[in-house]
Amino acid sequence: MALAFKKVSCPPIRTLTASAPDGALIGVIGEDGAGKGMLLRLAAGLAQPVSGSVSAGKTRRLIGPGDPLSFAPVHVLALEHAFAQHDLLVRARAVLALDRLRRSGTTVLMASHEEDWLRRTCDEIWWLREGELAARGEPATVLEAYRAHAADKMRAWGETITNPVDISRRRGDHRAEIVSLDTLGDDGERTAVWRSGEPVEVRVTLRYVEAVPDPVIGLLIRSRVGLDVYGTNSELEKVKLGPRAPGDSLKVEFRFTCDLCPQEYTLTVASHDPDGTRHDWLDEAVSITVTDKRHTAGVANLRARIEVLPA
After folding, report:
1. Do 17 and 144 lie in a common domain?
2. Are 138 and 10 contained in the same domain?
3. Distance between CA atoms of 127 and 163, rounded to whole angstroms?
4. Nearest-CA neighbor of 236 among 259, 213, 254?
5. Do residues 38 and 97 both lie within one domain?
6. Are strands 278-291 and 170-171 parallel, antiparallel or unpaired?
7. DSSP state of 158
8. Which residues of the chain have pLDDT under 50?
């Protein structure tokens, strides 16, 4: 018997109508509090709707985080982050067990935050947002829409938090001091989150303690594992900044397109002489998160285009 929700309300679920056929594996995604857990409990018969109805077979089971994995035949199997704590071998066995259940007609609802796992195993994805069904359909399409939504929320959140400068690894002869370091998005607002592909800025403000005839300001971006991703400085870009007298202030902006893959990065900034003698060097001074609507591997987002040519 297929699993069907008809105008179901049970907070945080609100007037949800959806159905899944026999033998389907449905992935359930959404932010915390969107109603994923309640949906699974309704499917498993462990909760009853305040209004509306849930139709399902006679035998139903819910497996949550840390519960023993049981793949005995049932009409409906609800999995709530059931594989989050398990290794690759257990997951490989689970894929085979789930496939057997599907072929026997079991309808599976599986909540997970693991995109690769959902792509690998699911026939369809349901995206819950604030208790309602925001989208459903082919896994790649719905996951991309959800990632775009999450990227927008991450970007908005990034503008609400401070991005403190870490001075614990400050080095140099103190002829200059980096006073502030700001990361800005395409709207000119300070943010700790960049979207992949957006025009961004890194703004460095300095104060000179001693006279410096020919200062050079540099920027280095590193990945979370310490790989140098990109570096440049005012000398390489042929921008003259000196001479600077004691008490002078200087504000420099590095502008570029953030063609980076989604992950965390650090920014190192420095003031130094052309021969490399450091005035002030802040190693991995701030962290920045890059987000995107789709998954990419590595650090450089090259936005490749694929064309199929005649054989």
Report:
1. yes
2. yes
3. 32
4. 254
5. yes
6. antiparallel
7. H
8. none
Token pair of 149 as six digits: 């939504």
Nearest to 84 by CA among 101, 62, 66: 66
Please indicate, yes or no, whether the overall pTM of this predicted structure exceeds 0.90.
no
Least Cα distance to 25 among 93, 114, 126, 115 occurs for 126
Residue that the structure tokens 């305040």 belong to: 50
Same domain, 113 and 80: yes
- List the Cα angle 301/167/192 in 5-degree steps: 35
Contact in structure between 11 and 37 (CB atoms under 8 Å): no
Task: Tell me the per-residue pLDDT of 165-215, one tens digit each, with 9 for 90 and over.
Answer: 999 999 999 999 999 999 999 999 999 999 999 999 999 999 999 999 999
Q: Measured between alpha carbons, how far apart are the two ends of the chain, in Å?
A: 47
User: What range does the domain containing 199 cover?
Assistant: 170-291
What is the number of alpha carbons within 13 Å of residue 257 lying toward its C-beta? Answer: 6
Contact between 218 and 237 under an 8 Å Cβ cutoff? The reply is no
Residues 136 and 179 in one domain: no
- Report d(CA 105, CA 73) in Å as an integer: 9
Pick the last residue of a domain from 78, 113, 148.
148
Domain count, the chain: 2
CA–CA distance, 47 with 45 (Å, rounded to integer): 5
The string over 62-73, giving b where at least 16 C-beta atoms fall within 10 Å of a residue's C-beta and e elsewhere, is bbbeeeeeebee
Q: Are residues 111 and 222 part of one domain?
A: no
- The helix/strand/coil state of 7 is strand
